[in-house]
Amino acid sequence: MSTEPHGPEDRLRRFATIWSRAVFPVTSTSATRPEFEKQLLPLARRLSEALRARIFDADESKAVGAALVAAHCTDPDALARTLDCVDAYLVLYCGEGGVQEDLRARAARIQHAMAAGFARALRERTLAEQEAIAQAALRAQGVVAQALHASEARFRAVFEGAAIGIGIADLEGNVLQVNSALLRMFGLSDQALRGRRVREWTHPDDAPQTWRLYEELVSGEREHYHVEKAFYRPDGTVLWTNLTVSLLRDADGNPQYQLALMEDTTERRLLNLRLRYEATHDALTGLPNRTFFFERLEKALAAGEDQRFGLCYLDLDGFKTINDSLGHAAGDRLLVEIADRLQSCATAPGEMVARLGGDEFVALTTGPETQREVDELAARIMNALLAPVSIDGRELTVRGSIGVVEGPAGERSPAEVLRSADITMYRAKSAGGNRFELADPEADARAITRHGLTTALPAALDRNEFFIEYQPLVHLGDGTVRGAEALVRWLHPQHGVLGPDRFIPLAEHTGLIVPLGRWVLEQSVRQARAWQERCDGAGPLRVNVNLSPCQLTHPGLVQDTVDILERAGVAPEALCLEVTESALIGADDDLLKPLRRLAEMGIDIALDDFGTGYSNLANLRRLPVSVLKLDRSFTQSMQQFPADPVDLKIVEGIVSLAHSLNLAVTVEGVETGAQAEQLRILGCDTAQGWYYARPGPPERLHELALVDATG
């Protein structure tokens, strides 16, 4: 016959039973287990009501956590066992009829609130106990001193009734009397304790000043002292105490006895150690966490001049794929297995492994010879990752990228060391992963500069730190200036003038290329208008503006371009938009649609860096382009005479194909007259390069255009 609970009250009692069985073994109570269960039943009912309440009230769950402390459930394991029960059984027995996903989320919030209430109540109780014990100690010290001089009966009542341990010894250290509280603390009989000598109670963890203070007291140089002291019990366990020792004098003021007052702090110390462990160790793997690692790294970097350190920063390759495909539970088991393997790699003195978070781990080695040791440590880690990890019947191959930093102590801060290791690790990952790389100060500096430029980009646009230079486009037939390409520059406050190769990739990565590109287009079109007004009938000057792949996919490209042209009063024919060939390789109709609309308006579309994308030449027929910009790699050999005949044939073929498709050909990087003449003979239409002019201010282009117009 089934014994499963049926009604809500039966299920609630079942939950209280499971809860009491889990927590009772670690609870300091004189009640029996069934009696303890009755104490927990109203708390279980409050949790059940909190689980099913329409609006979550954290205070109700906090009150349950505080009630546990009031019920003497103060052992470090009591809270952990309680939260485990709530996690496993509260929804099962008290969540009937609800949406399971919502109930699980509510149960998690209940656990957090209970833990907060428990911690607060325990802290308040501890503070109250400390205050009460301190007051009791002061009262006991004064009353005992009076009792010794007044009434033996009165002394005995105070001595035995005190809540803290009290012991009296003579000045030679012979124990004369102890009270019941002290006997219970040590687990000894009165006869066993009264024959002991104070000097026998040494412990390896005694503070250096403990026995010096004791000697000063028994010699009459000191009236009292207070220390934290450990004692061994007969069973080998350790008793931790707050110990106050005072000197008692006779009626004439001569030293006569020493009085010890002991508060048992063992439970509190164990709880503090447990909390300290949880605060400094990773809950999943048990490894030291980021906090603990930084403490160790700070100590290593603050060591003497002859000390060095070595650090390995590990990031698993492709861990997100495992999480996404197999689930986070499988990912967690994988991390636990990797943590175990890493721990086996760092067992020598001065070595440690920590988990920084996610799939990032770090191994540290310290000592005078870390140049060799850190390489060996990195190699051991890579070897430890070779064997597949079995998860749910699957054999998973684990790869990792490691950044290695090594150096003398005292030169860098922990943050600088970790940043260098992180940069180096990503360099290893960019090189294909499954390897370790050594830190390179120059590479670090480049990465740091790159990061600094990335973070400074948005503000730079707001502060008008960008400006545009223009490089002339010259007609090869008559040598006249037909327009110019707009080239954006960044006047950086620290690094000076930066070319587009330094910041355009960063702008594309962050998405800032869209507002920056819009600004460049607006400024360039305005400049085209200014040229037209100054040319006085000498012919309009066209401006070429580069479009990045991000701009091509931006939905506002066409409308932004139309608005900018209309506001400036510039005809579409005065604008040419340059798109790299690689951005259009395999482009579908959706990507080409905005370019077609722009071309239909009369804007020229130039295919930039043509010849570098290895695209099918037949693709040119479906692209809405009117200009090919031949990459400089095809014409470099023409700077010398005679030119490479193979290059001549290639350029001649491209020009012939382009003209057959009604496309104009522009050549970049023209640096010599011989090169320009050869390109003219081959039929190229326009060219740009240092032979004509370097990029410069817009006024320079106007001057060149006027020279051409006047002959």
Written description of the protein model:
Helix 5 (100-149) runs antiparallel to helix 6 (152-161) and helix 18 (513-535) runs parallel beside helix 25. The protein is elongated, with a radius of gyration of 41 Å. By secondary structure, it is α/β, with parallel strands linked by helices. Strands 13-14-16-17-18-19-20-21 form an 8-stranded mixed beta barrel, surrounded by 4 helices. Helices cover 51% and strands 20% of the residues.
Helices and strands, with pairings:
Layout: H1 8-23, H2 33-52, H3 58-70, H4 76-94, H5 100-149, H6 152-161, E1 165-170, E2 175-178, H7 180-186, H8 190-194, H9 210-218, E3 224-232, E4 238-249, E5 255-264, H10 266-280, H11 290-301, E6 308-317, H12 319-326, H13 328-345, E7 351-357, E8 360-367, H14 370-384, E9 389-391, E10 394-396, E11 399-408, H15 414-430, E12 435-438, H16 441-462, E13 466-475, E14 481-492, E15 496-498, H17 500-510, H18 513-535, E16 542-547, H19 549-552, H20 557-568, E17 575-580, H21 581-584, H22 589-601, E18 604-610, E19 627-630, H23 645-660, E20 664-667, H24 673-682, E21 686-687, H25 698-710
Parallel strand pairs: 11-12, 14-16, 16-17, 17-18, 18-19, 19-20, 20-21
Antiparallel strand pairs: 1-2, 1-5, 3-4, 4-5, 6-8, 6-11, 7-8, 9-10, 13-14, 13-21, 14-15
Helix pairs in contact: 1-2, 1-4, 2-3, 2-5, 3-5, 4-5, 5-6, 12-13, 13-14, 16-17, 18-20, 18-25
